[in-house]
Amino acid sequence: MKVNISEIKNIHGAVLDFAGQQELTITEEKLGFQVINPIHVKGRVTNAATFYIVEIGLNFKYRGQCSRCLSDFEKKGKININVQFSENPLENEAEVVYKFSGDELDITEAIREYIWLEFPIKLLCKTDCQGIGLRHKEDLVEPTNSQFEKLRGLFQEERGVNNGKSNE
Ligand SMILES: [Zn+2]
Questions:
Q1: Where are the domains of the chain?
Q2: What spacing in Å lies between the alpha carbon of 134 and ligand 1's midpoint?
Q3: Can you give the pTM of this predicted structure?
Q4: In the chain, how long is the greatest CA-to-CA distance?
Q5: Does 167 score more than 50 pLDDT?
Q6: N or C: which end of the chain has fewer CB within 10 A?
Q7: Which residues surround ligand 1, an ion (CB under 5 A)?
Q8: Angle CA(54)–CA(58)–CA(59) in degrees, nearest 5?
Q9: Distance between terminal CA atoms of the chain?
Q10: pLDDT tens, 89-109?
């Protein structure tokens, strides 16, 4: 995605808002990680005289496989990026500065790099996923047990089970 900055080009302090969509192929086959297009992009460029400050908010969906319970899931991702663009970046710059020329900032690579940087090494379907063992226990064992107790209770009531207590 490219942002045309011609209207703020020679005005120190001028600000330009932009929005759009970015299509990118970002996958990690081993982890089952895949960004679902399009990526929704919103941002702001500020002319800081010798460089441009670009703030970008990304909203997208991604697929992955949970590293704990191994289920496939689809989740929303949100990333905020703050980068600089310069026509003449200095060598040994402390900040990450992307080079550009002309009236357009191409933010595609910044988006790609930051999604890679931010995406977790261990994917989780939810932050408190308990993994296979506990999911199994909660989903299967406990409900079955309590339902069995209820059923047994009903059964005993109906039959008026002979357990030594009088049953009126
Ligand atoms: Zn999980």
A1: 2-118, 130-161
A2: 10
A3: 0.72
A4: 96
A5: no
A6: C
A7: 66, 68-69, 125, 129
A8: 160
A9: 79
A10: 887 767 779 999 999 999 999
